Amino acid sequence: MTAKSLLTALLPLVSDLSRELPEGERYRRLLEAMRALLPCDAAALLRLDGEWLVPLAVDGLSTDTLGRRFKISEHPRFEALLSSHGPTRFAADSDLPDPYDGLVEGLDDHLEVHDCMGCPLFIDERPWGLLTLDALDPEQFEPIELDALQAFASLAAATVNAAERIERLANRVEDEHQRAEVYRQASGQQNRELIGQSKSHKRLVEEINLVGGSDLTVLITGETGVGKELVAQAIHAASARADKPIISLNCAALPDTLVESELFGHVRGAFTGAMNDRRGKFELANGGTLFLDEVGELSLTVQAKLLRVLQSGQLQRLGSDKEHTVDVRLIAATNRDLAEEVRNGRYRADFYHRLSVYPLLVPALRDRGRDVLLLSGFFLEQNRSRMGLNSLRLNSDAQAALLAYNWPGNVRELEHLIGRSALKALGNCKDRPKILSLSAADLDLPNGRIEVVAEQPAAAPMALVSGDLREATENYQRQLISACLERHHDNWASAARELGLDRANLGRMAKRLGMK
């Protein structure tokens, strides 16, 4: 390679350093320039995030690669690249498994003999990530190309350093990170990221960053399974309270009496079983954020008591007259139309307006276009690691099936479907494969399942008219409740609303019928 060709490839990047570009476009141009300099079949830019490598841009690899998170300890090639201070070229017949096996576009076979090299990127003398190149021709990269890759990597480091988001991550103060991690562990939360590139997803992220910097109360709405709790965690992480705890409570999981105790705490002897004083979620979240999930399930009594705390910042533990003052940012979530609940007299108008200072709608998965493939990649990599496979991928017909499906259960349904399908597909293999490819048939998409289930209750009584009346009635009740729970993805509160029952009464009925 001549100095002139090297300069020709690098000049566009030098020009880009002074331009304002979206992060994704900046990285796409980076890979485009690298492939012009070093022709290859696949290239990737990956950011180091603790013990994981996160793909930021790919060229020549399947779309779902962007959703994957590669655990370094499970990929020896990545370990080798990160342990070096310069470029590394692997032997064409290296027996080290390739993390991109099965992910190169247009190639369904193994990458057993090919040319592969990569180079770590350093920012402020600290490892930031990797550039990787793969070629199907085992003699594609000559030894002299390593010097060109080193030169390119130096400019690539300046390019990624120009992205403001990467700068903030690279310069994050270590002790703040450690304190935030301690609080996350104490509150049982995992710092999971929001994955997506669709316009609706980007708008959501923009709103999260906007409202995160404030102390406004946020009401997150959206269908079941869209990831409302994940959004709440992202809002907290973007706030000035990020180094304080975020404490969560599912309001639909507890009866009213326990909800009050969980929220406000109690003193010894306040009720049967209260053996000691106990702080509630508000006090635990003092200085931080309280996330109330399924807030639409709160009774009018609890709403009134919560309203007082939100207005004054003062609360009393159950059984105590002592006032406690708290400083808590509230984030709530629901899949119900609370404005309609207010109109029907089932929800307090003053409490609703207190909650919805900043309403935030999380888009359904069917409205997020090709994000379904990125999310699939994330879940595929999780299952690949869990199942001990070299590669877990989607065939083109499987990708088309995922894009065509309506996703009534949203991201949660996708997560369960990928895990279930991967396990079934592996079980159908006589010999353990190196690459497990999921086809559309393997995905087991529930086409028509919801409509069929909805029709069963009407026909069920005809089949149950045998034996005594009580037994037939109970059998019918079991079928009706089971079908309703399946439609609502085991959300008991939603099922109770459809059946016209109080949630607690539904629980008692299910227990009597032997369903719990």
Structure overview:
With 516 residues, the protein is α/β, with parallel strands linked by helices. It folds into four domains: 3-170, GAF domain (Beta-Lactamase, 2-Layer Sandwich); 199-361, 3-Layer(aba) Sandwich (Rossmann fold), CATH 3.40.50.300; 365-443, Helicase, Ruva Protein, domain 3; 449-512, Arc Repressor Mutant, subunit A. The protein is 46% helix and 15% strand. It has 21 helices and 15 strands. The protein has helices at 3-16, 23-37, 76-82, 145-162, 164-170, 174-186, 199-212, 228-237, 256-264, 281-284, 300-312, 338-343, 349-355, 371-387, 396-404, 410-427, 440-443, 449-463, 469-487, 492-499, 503-512, and strands at 42-49, 52-59, 70-71, 88-90, 115-123, 126-135, 218-221, 246-250, 289-293, 314-316, 323-325, 329-334, 358-361, 391-394, 435-438. Strands 3-2-1-6-5-4 form a six-stranded antiparallel beta sheet, sandwiched between helices. Strands 8-9-12-7-13 form a five-stranded parallel beta sheet. Strands 10-11 form a two-stranded antiparallel ribbon. Strand 1 and strand 2 form a beta hairpin. The longest helix has 19 residues, at 469-487. The chain is globular.
Key descriptive features of the protein:
alpha/beta; Beta-Lactamase; 4 domains; single chain; 516 residues; 6-stranded antiparallel sheet; Rossmann fold; Helicase, Ruva Protein, domain 3; globular
Quick structural summary:
With 516 residues, the protein is of the alpha/beta class. Helix content is 46%, strand content 15%.
Spatial order of strands in the largest sheet: 3-2-1-6-5-4
Q: How does the overall form come out from the CA principal axes?
A: globular
Question: How many domain units?
Answer: 4
CATH superfamily of the largest domain: GAF domain
What is the number of beta strands? Answer: 15
* Strand residue percentage: 15-25%
The multimeric state of the shown protein is single chain
Query: From the alpha-carbon coordinates, what is the Rg to the nearest angstrom?
Result: 27 Å
Distance, first to last CA: 70 Å
| Text of the CATH class of the largest domain | Alpha Beta
Secondary structure: helix percent: 40-55%
DSSP summary: helix tally: 21
Looking at the structure, the CATH topology of the largest domain is Beta-Lactamase
Mean pLDDT: 82
The appropriate CATH architecture of the largest domain is 2-Layer Sandwich
Largest sheet: 6 strands, antiparallel
Structural class: alpha/beta
Provide the low-confidence segments as ranges.
169-183, 185-190, 448-466
